[in-house]
Write a structure and sequence with these properties.
Blueprint lengths: L15 H11 L15 H4 L10 E4 L9 H17 L2 E6 L9 H13 L5 E2 L2 E2 L1 E3 L4 H13 L3 E4 L3 H6 L18 H12 L9 E4 L14 E5 L13 E3 L1 H11 L4 E5 L6 H13 L9 E5 L11 H9 L14 H7 L3 H11 L10 H15 L1 E3 L1 E2 L2 E6 L8 E6 L9 E6 L2 E5 L19 E4 L4 E10 L2 E9 L17 E3 L1 E3 L4 E8 L24 E8 L11 E4 L3 E5 L11 E5 L4 H5 L2
The protein binds adenosine-5'-triphosphate and magnesium ion.
Length: 592
């Protein structure tokens, strides 16, 4: 099978996982791998054709919640490696736990993976799999282990089992059921399957080594009784495999070559290898066997990435649902205006490591800025409007100014912005008494109205001490783009909109959901560490061209950041905008 090692390793920033893969490929470890075009044991793969995929990876979420930023790292890693090495990445639902799984989550997960730009079809196969389809095999494998003297039914209570597990410094004690005859375990296991025993009455345990220094090797439980309906298999089963037993088998049946998981599974690797080795020895699984490699999970400052805690945020209504733009879920991020390209850039930039660490939230924001800067057309928005009246401009006149859609992309063209006597400007762009170094509007000062005219500030009107209108005079010879426009040199340059043409629009300004960089760490209550300023709803004045915006279009509102029309609350012709990210990191400035 010449094709399998023909292609050179992908040119890419290397990391320890790529090094393992390179070494496995160079050593020909998977050169003899076959693929029966569907998951299965030795009977499916042993005499099948050569595997066209050079490696196989998988993304195996449990369908019990929405995907979050941590999953995005895992998706980019697994699908990215398969892409770079000419391999295949399987989309697998790890649905071996009957209780918490739902179709709603399945649909949302598939949608999120596609949104991130990945696909599980390769070499003519649709590699979308459900671990629950392997229940028959897992059950047969368990019977095989019992028959081979490698598993037994233990009838101790959960507490008894825990008590005899031992500790890091003390060996475990054998269960009184450990040496029972195989036939008896066999019979009990079938009774478990047939619903003859109550939940928790007994479990099937692998028979390995109660004195192993690795507690996971001290006869781990591999099957339990759980009388619960499963979202796909219904009431067919009342015994379910434990995760540590199910996962290696899932990988082997799918001919996964490199099974990437987070660090907490490192201590499980010996059991992973033990189990697959025994089942291959018994002729149930084809070789070569998959290899587990652990990497550090994503920890992001100001973010919580635990499904359980995210559920709590939703249930206690600290946020407006799973797709709240402040949530670290992919549905939330998408609504907020984060992009798939930004996530892929982020995954590349943070890479993979073998030790846990914290990534600054600003790294993710910078990736989004970088991507949005490329794809977002420029528009004008006045977020905190105050009137500017050009006193020497005629009442009944209006004219057009031209603004580029993207300053670095002349091919994106220009758009027209109406200019008239009454304008909106940002309140902060006027100061009655300017602080030092202030170059914007103050009485006597000149600024350029960007893409328009140079104006001289003449003063303001106030009511109850609050500025209601700013006044100015314009220089008719100074219009941007006309000959001699830059005759007058000014230091300030501010944005504006014609009051008559602008549209008052709801805009949501989002910020980090948690003020604390490590929310909930040290057993603190994370719900008390929420950022009270994480969502601010304002009515802004927007350029008329924005009225037709749809949710897939990103904009830079000049000076304010990147925005997108909200996919849920916008109406045709009347969008509501979300701020994805500011232009600069305001948290950096706030730091002492
Ligand atoms: P959580 O702990 O939030 O419930 P999980 O690990 O239980 O997440 P799964 O659905 O089991 O979620 O995970 C699917 C895949 O995503 C697994 O391979 C897991 O390793 C990976 N994953 C989950 N969280 C992270 C993270 N923070 N960083 C990197 N990968 C992650
Ligand atoms: Mg999990």
């Amino acid at each position: 099978m010449p094709a399998r090692n023909a292609k050179p390793a992908a040119p890419h920033v290397t990391n320890f996982i790529r090094n393992f893969i390179d070494a496995d490929l160079a050593g020909g470890k998977y050169a003899g791998q076959t693929w029966g075009r569907r998951p299965g044991g030795a009977s499916v793969h042993a005499n099948a054709a050569a595997d066209p995929a050079r490696i196989r990876t998988r993304f195996p979420p449990e369908p019990n919640g929405y995907l979050h930023f941590g999953h995005a790292k895992s998706i980019c890693l697994n699908f990215g490696l398969a892409r770079d090495y000419g391999g295949a990445c399987h989309m697998r639902f790890d649905d071996t736990n009957p209780e918490k799984e739902e179709q709603e989550y399945v649909d949302s997960i598939l949608d999120a993976v596609r949104w991130l730009g990945f696909d599980w079809h390769s070499f003519g196969d649709d590699n979308l799999y459900y671990a629950s389809d392997y229940f028959d095999f897992m059950y047969e494998a368990a019977e095989y282990l019992i028959g081979a003297g490698l598993a037994y039914v233990d009838e101790q209570s959960a507490e008894e089992m825990r008590a005899s597990r031992g500790t890091l410094t003390e060996a475990g004690r054998a269960s009184p059921w450990r040496e029972r005859p195989r036939e008896e375990s066999q019979q009990r296991f079938r009774e478990m399957r047939d619903g003859k025993h109550a939940d928790g009455a007994m479990v099937l345990r692998a028979k390995i080594d109660m004195a192993s220094p690795n507690i996971n090797m001290r006869d781990p439980a591999i099957y339990r009784i759980r009388k619960a309906a499963h979202h796909r298999t219904g009431d067919k089963w009342c015994v379910y495999p434990m995760y540590t037993y199910a996962h290696p088998i899932e990988d082997a049946l799918e001919r996964i070559t490199h099974s990437l998981c987070t660090l907490e599974f490192e201590d499980q690797r010996p059991f992973y290898d033990w189990l697959l080795e025994k089942l291959a020895e018994g002729g149930l699984l084809a070789r070569p066997l998959p290899r587990q490699i652990e990497f550090a999970r994503l920890n992001l400052t100001h973010v919580m990435l635990s499904k359980r805690k995210l559920i709590q945020l939703v249930a206690e209504k600290h946020v407006d649902g799973w797709d709240d733009p402040r949530m670290p879920t992919l549905v939330g991020a998408r609504r907020r205006g984060y992009t798939p390209e930004g996530f892929r850039l982020f995954a590349d930039r943070i890479g993979v490591a073998k030790a846990d660490s914290w990534i600054e939230y600003s790294v993710l924001e910078d990736c989004m800025r970088e991507d949005l800067n490329e794809r977002a057309a420029r528009r004008i928005a006045v977020l905190d409007p105050v009137k500017l009246v050009v006193d020497n401009y005629p009442h009944d006149r209006e004219e057009e100014c031209e603004a580029p859609n993207h300053p670095q992309k002349p091919e994106w063209g220009k758009r027209k912005i109406p200019f008239a006597k009454e304008l909106w400007i940002e309140r902060e762009d006027f100061a009655e008494t300017p602080p030092k170094g202030y170059f914007r509007l103050f009485p006597g000062n000149q600024v350029r109205l960007r893409y328009g005219f140079v104006v001289t500030c003449t003063g303001c009107d106030k009511r109850d001490g609050v500025v209601t209108t700013v006044h100015c005079q314009y220089d008719p010879q100074s219009k941007s783009g006309t000959p001699g426009a830059d005759r007058v040199k000014v230091k300030g340059n501010i944005h504006w909109l014609s009051a008559r043409h602008a549209r008052a629009t709801e805009v949501r300004l989002y910020d980090r959901l948690f003020a604390h960089p490590h929310p909930g760490s040290g057993d603190r209550d994370f719900t008390r560490e929420l950022n009270p300023e994480s969502k601010r709803v304002i009515t802004a004045q927007l350029e008329p061209a924005l009225a037709g915006a749809h949710a897939a279009e990103h904009f830079q509102f000049e000076r304010h950041g990147y925005f997108v029309a909200d996919s849920r609350d916008s109406k045709a012709g009347a969008p509501v905008f979300n701020r994805a990210v500011t232009l600069r990191d305001s948290w950096l400035k706030a730091a002492p």
